[in-house]
Design brief:
With 361 residues, the chain is of the alpha+beta class. It contains 10 helices and 12 strands. Helix 9 packs antiparallel against helix 10. The structure holds adenosine-5'-triphosphate and magnesium ion. Adenosine-5'-triphosphate binds next to strand 2 and strand 4. Adenosine-5'-triphosphate (ATP) binds next to strand 2 and strand 4. Its main location: membrane.
Length: 361
């Protein structure tokens, strides 16, 4: 399907197939083992099973004061467990027609997250499956999601070093998923976006929402799907036009988040005309031109927090991540290395400027 047509789609689409012979379709964990694969990692955490009563107690019967946000899956509440641990409880609220898809996403989330362990992935503490009710219990992230901060909902305006730290943390999380180190099979997140980057007290980034994640069997570069899943604005154009899902689809979405960090704009702005709604189309031609680049830098970025050199390097990385041809995009481990260098160059440049100012005064 051509890229342009995707705008007419719903925000998110989900596969309905339950075919157990297809490695891309959700299967219970015991079916995951592919013939020539290493055994999958054992569950590390996330296996605590809660009762409905415990969920009600934790969230004050899902009171509005505890509401943290609402997404496509349902509402998310702040809660306190009997142990005193503060958590986020995601309650599945889907119409009966979508219950089967919701159940699949719920299981994928539990299966995948409980096998992963990385400082840049949100931890799943447990779940509740009581009758038809489903809840996921996560570690609580006090600074909410990245998009709210960029859209000026958060009180603290993020300076350039904190944005670089978020980009680096998210890159490390994705590189870990893609490298297959813990699960034994590389994982495509498929729904990477700024609302799925959560921030802790130190503004460290953790990736959430693995319900659409897919295992990428080794030796296979792509999987062809009939149904394109994800969120509009972050879709890899190659994936939407050919149905070919690759690890590089996450790299494209990562590039979109880099552009959000640089400009403070949303991935999609429906108030703009059809050719200007998408952030990639808006800024693609300005990223390699320093003069034009200055005009798109987020006005909320404190001027004394960045060097133009680091902005130019960051814009260059973002423009390669959002290349239409997926082979021209860097890998996530390549992005980690470049962002480390950009962070270092920025600190060094600012340190030199400070040194210069002190000598002049
Ligand atoms: N572990 C958490 N700690 C703190 N806040 C959270 C946590 N998980 C989710 N939230 C908040 O709840 C909001 C809703 O999350 P949810 O994942 O349901 O939807 P979304 O990511 O915004 O959108 P979509 O469903 O389209 O992916 C998030 O945007 C975030 O602000
Ligand atoms: Mg989310």
């Amino acid at each position: 399907m051509p890229f342009g047509l995707v705008s007419a789609w719903n925000k998110r689409r989900r596969s309905k197939s339950q075919d157990h012979s297809d490695p891309w379709i959700y299967k219970p964990a015991e079916f995951w083992q592919l013939d020539d694969q290493k055994p999958l990692a054992k569950r590390r955490h996330g296996s605590t099973v809660f009762t409905l009563k415990e969920m009600e107690e934790a969230t004050g019967s899902f009171s509005d004061e505890n509401l943290l946000g609402k997404g496509g899956f349902g509402r998310v509440y702040k809660g306190v467990l009997r142990s005193g641990e503060v958590v986020a409880v995601k309650k599945m609220e889907l119409p009966p027609s979508k219950a089967a898809e919701g159940e699949r996403e719920f299981r994928v989330e539990v299966d995948i997250l409980s096998r992963l362990d990385h400082p840049n992935l949100v931890s799943l503490i447990g779940y509740c499956a009581d009758g038809k009710q489903r809840f996921l219990v996560y570690e609580y992230m006090p600074n909410g999601n990245l998009q709210d901060h960029l859209n000026r909902i958060g009180e603290v305006k993020m300076d350039w070093p904190s944005r670089l730290k978020v980009a680096l943390g998210a890159a490390r999380g994705l590189a870990y998923l893609h490298a297959s180190s813990d699960v034994g099979i590389p994982i495509v997140h498929r729904d990477f976006k700024s609302t799925n980057i959560l921030l802790n007290t130190n503004f460290d980034a953790k990736i959430s929402d693995f319900g659409l994640a897919k295992l990428m069997p080794e030796g296979e570069e792509a999987y062809v799907t009939a149904m394109v899943l994800g969120t509009f604005g972050y879709f890899d154009p190659e994936y939407t036009s050919t149905g070919k899902l690759t690890l590089q689809s996450d790299v494209y979405a990562f590039g979109v988040v880099l552009l959000e960090l640089l400009t403070g704009r949303s991935a999609v702005d429906l108030n703009q005309g059809p050719t200007d709604q998408n952030i990639v189309l808006q800024v693609r031609n300005t990223l390699s031109d320093r003069k034009k680049l200055r005009k798109i830098i987020d006005h909320d970025l404190p001027r004394n927090s960045y060097t133009m050199e680091s902005i130019a390097m960051f814009a260059n990385l973002a423009s390669r991540c959002v290349q239409i041809n997926s082979r021209e995009r860097p890998t996530m481990s390549g992005c980690v290395k470049e962002l480390q260098l950009i962070f270092y160059m920025n600190s060094k440049g600012l340190g030199m400027a400070l040194h210069h100012t002190l000598r002049m005064s």
